């Protein structure tokens, strides 16, 4: 294990919750090229050599690992539509006819409205209360914020600048809670994710498939975590950069271990 990775893993092992009170701590990066497992479809015991685990915000952190908490920061989760409509209807993006803007690629998920400073500030308050505070108090060391690229699927209602300003507020809040923050996908941001929103590392899905892995490593160096969903792309990625960054093969639905369609491999 590299020295820098050892320091990061040591930070992951430090106790951060005592008698239910969150202790103040500095955020730390995931171990560079640490063995990784991506458990969004359900939590399970990882392989013994795994150092980094991503789980949904509703799951528990895993003792002795560097834990990344998944947060769908730019649109609603499918089961949360009624929560948002009841409590925060004005924070949901709407079409010209007043209907909620449903993500065309993710049915049942509705885009959040990042167009004004007031909207962005209000959204951070909701995300903090509903997700980020819980990630910190459970012992996660980082969050990954998904669907940063909603602006590209919003019919030009949203734009990259509004989303980046909102992302920057989320990063600032998470840092104050002792959490590092990963840029999730959105390779087209170039250096703006790191320089403007202040993301600390990147999590990329299928960068080999889309020939964009270097778009992340050029910005974040070795602080990149890559998930591939086909054996061919996984093998190619391991050959090209498996000694530099964390790479894992998972099934598309990232189901828990024990399911017949479960797939997992590490470089």
UniProtKB/TrEMBL annotation:
Q: Which Pfam families match?
A: Glyco_hydro_114
Q: Where is the Glycoside-hydrolase family GH114 TIM-barrel domain?
A: 36-252
* EC top class, as a word: hydrolase
* Keywords for the protein's UniProt record, in alphabetical order: Signal
Q: Which SUPFAM superfamilies does the record associate with it?
A: (Trans)glycosidases (SSF51445)
Recorded GO MF terms: alpha-galactosidase activity
Q: What is its EC number?
A: 3.2.1.22
Q: Where is the signal peptide?
A: 1-19
Which reaction(s) are listed as its catalytic activity? Hydrolysis of terminal, non-reducing alpha-D-galactose residues in alpha-D-galactosides, including galactose oligosaccharides, galactomannans and galactolipids
Top-level taxonomic group: Eukaryota
Q: What is this protein called?
A: alpha-galactosidase
Q: Which organism is it from?
A: Pterulicium gracile
